[in-house]
Each structure stands twice: as C-alpha cells, then as structure tokens.
Amino acid sequence: MRLAAIYDIHGNLPALEAVFEDIARADVDEVVVGGDVVAGPMPRETLAFLLNAPVPVRFIRGNADREVVSQMQGGDVGAVPEHVRAITRWVARQLQPEHLRLLSSWPATLSRSVDGLGEVLFCHATPRSDTDVFTRLTPEAHLDTAFQNLRAGLVVCGHTHMQFDRRVGHTRVVNAGSVGMPYGEPGASWVLLGPGVEFRRTDYDLLRAAARIRRTGYPEAGAFADRNVVLPPTEAEALEVFTRMERGQGRSS
What we know:
The chain is an alpha/beta fold. The chain has one domain (3-248): Purple Acid Phosphatase, chain A, domain 2, CATH 3.60.21.10. Helix content is 34%, strand content 19%. The chain is built from 8 helices and 10 strands. It has helices at 13-25, 43-51, 63-72, 82-94, 97-105, 206-214, 221-230, 235-248; strands at 3-6, 30-33, 57-59, 109-114, 118-123, 154-157, 164-168, 171-175, 188-193, 197-202. The chain has a 5-stranded mixed sheet. α3 packs across α4 (82-94) and α6 runs antiparallel to α7.
C-alpha cells in the first residue's frame, strides 16, 4: 500500500484542493488525514471535500477537532486563549449534528501497513497525547516516554506544522508538516509514504486563496490569510515559540 499523509488542514480548502491534485498524480491507495481538519475558515467545505474524495480517506483526531467536538457538546474546550475559544465557537456553529457524529468517531491513532516501511503509526502530536509539543530540536531524552513500547518502526505526526525526520530511540519519527497553516515556506506540506518517505510541498495560488479566505465569516480571516497563507512564520520564528512552549507543554495552534 502507498499512502499520502496530510495533516493540519485547518479549514484551508484552497490548499487542500491543490494537494489533492498532486495526490491524484502520485498513484496512492489511501489518504490518512492526521487531525486538525475543521478549525479554520472553511470547515464545512473542507469536510465535504474530504468525504467526497476520489481515493479512500481515513481520519485521526487532532486537538482542535477534539475542542470543536467539546464545544458542540456544550463542554469545556480546555485551557486555551480567548481568541482560540472564539474560533472554536465559530467553527462549531458552522457544523451540523452529522458532523459532530463524524468528528466524534475519529480515533486518536491509526496503524497502517505501508509498502517498504512496514507498520506505520499515525498520531496527531505523539502516541500518548494530541497536544505534546516537540520539534527537530527537542532533546531525545525529553521524548522517551512518548514513544515507548511501540510496534511500529515509523511514526507520522503533525501538530507543530513543520516537516522533520528524526529518531527517538529505535523509532523513526516523521512530521508531515501542515497543509493549511505551514510554518517556514508557504505552500502546502505533506508526505508520500511507500516505498520510502518523500516530503512534498504543493504550490498553489496564495493570493487567490487568501481572497477566498477573507470572504468567509471566520473571526480572524484577514490574519489567517496574511500570516498562514501568504507569508507564514519562518522556521526560526516557529522554533523559538515552540521551544518556549515545550517547557510548559502548551498547544501549537
């Protein structure tokens, strides 16, 4: 089996559409969506696109998806900043009961057998948590317990929106990057799996996408268009933020 792993779409439908054009040329058997799907400017449209994709799609849950589910169920979204709460409330209002049932059914992790790679474990942040923050710079000693006792030799994660390929003990850990909110280079980042690991970045019309996003009712549409599509944070800026977050293990987005 040959897979595409796409993570952290964050309701950026133009980026997702462009990625699927590349996926169509990559001859994949399945797409794994690694969480944080709807928390962004086009939640309904993003779900509809994925549910009608021409290739089988499997989902796992991200922290932002979990928070939207909690909001829709009338619960607490946890210790997040007020602007994040406003976004979560807006996204929850865009969705219907059938969307709640769908998001609630997504597992935290998923295992698939991939040609040339064997068993691959997909998780949002780490196998133990959907909010663990780590990057290519995080000391291995800080991550041992998060990757213990795994059958899979390869773990694919996201959450911090930057691609990397590193080892934690005996486990190879790959971050797929982010389709909708990349840090570093603009475009949409994802990975192709089988028989190896191939990092991909899909270019698309950023200005046209930004204009589409600004026309939505998303609470931070302008900021999202400017700082997550047209000119995302640099890798150095993101690493500085995440290094601080690691000390308290906060959320990444």
